[in-house]
Target: Protein MgtC
Amino acid sequence: MKQAPLGIVASRPAAGDSLRFIADFQLVSFVDSFMSLGAAFVLGTIIGAERQYRQRTAGLRTNVLVAVGAAAFADLATRVGTSQDAMRVVANVVTGVGFLGAGVIMKEGLNIRGLNTAATLWCSAAVGSCTGTDMLAEAVLITFIIVAGNTILRPLAAFIDRIPINERLSEITYEVRVSTTPAAAAVVRDLLNDILDAAKYPAADLDTEDQPGDGVDIVARLVSTAVNRAELDDVVERLGHVPDVTHATWEITTQN
Model:
């Protein structure tokens, strides 16, 4: 029989430590957690399936993981802490998912994509938080509203987008956009400002935007919120005949 070297005391784990899992295991609590996480998985799948079908950046797996993760944190806080602890954990889940949602938002020129997908991820976390705190009925209700918002409201949103803008009732901004070369940008910028002043449509500000290739756009945002379209057409036509101007147009942008 081998002896332990001098100065070294052989130790063995106590029998109670190896059986601590069994001693602490509670079947009722385990079943409760299983139901919470299982419900988060199912409801997250329903939400993510619609996103996956539409080929969004955050699809089936992402929404399921967000829902299950939120449910796991909420369930853990509920089991080992107080209701105040659970609320603090849920608040941090909301913050963490907010950073995750920011990763799916992309800016392409003047357009921003991914806002709806990021909002759906945020709502998936709400579903998981509800299941983790044993609010299964509320989680089902939220899931129904999320799916309805992403499906039923799409035709309504498309219909509203096709309605012509009522310039008298909407808060809008008029912009005149002129494309030119970098070398002539300063001259064209001053000429644009002079032409707008002569037409009684002064610019609130002038911005220069770099474009792909060798070109820049000079954008003038008008002070006026109500204009005569024919007069703006005349301004654009005059700008189109200016040397070094490759393109001139005007457009309407809405304000939130």
User: Anything to note?
Assistant: The chain has two domains: 22-160, 172-254. The beta strands are 106-108, 111-113, 172-180, 203-211, 215-222, 247-254. The first helix runs from residue 15 to 18. The CA atoms of residues 36 and 102 lie 27 Å apart.
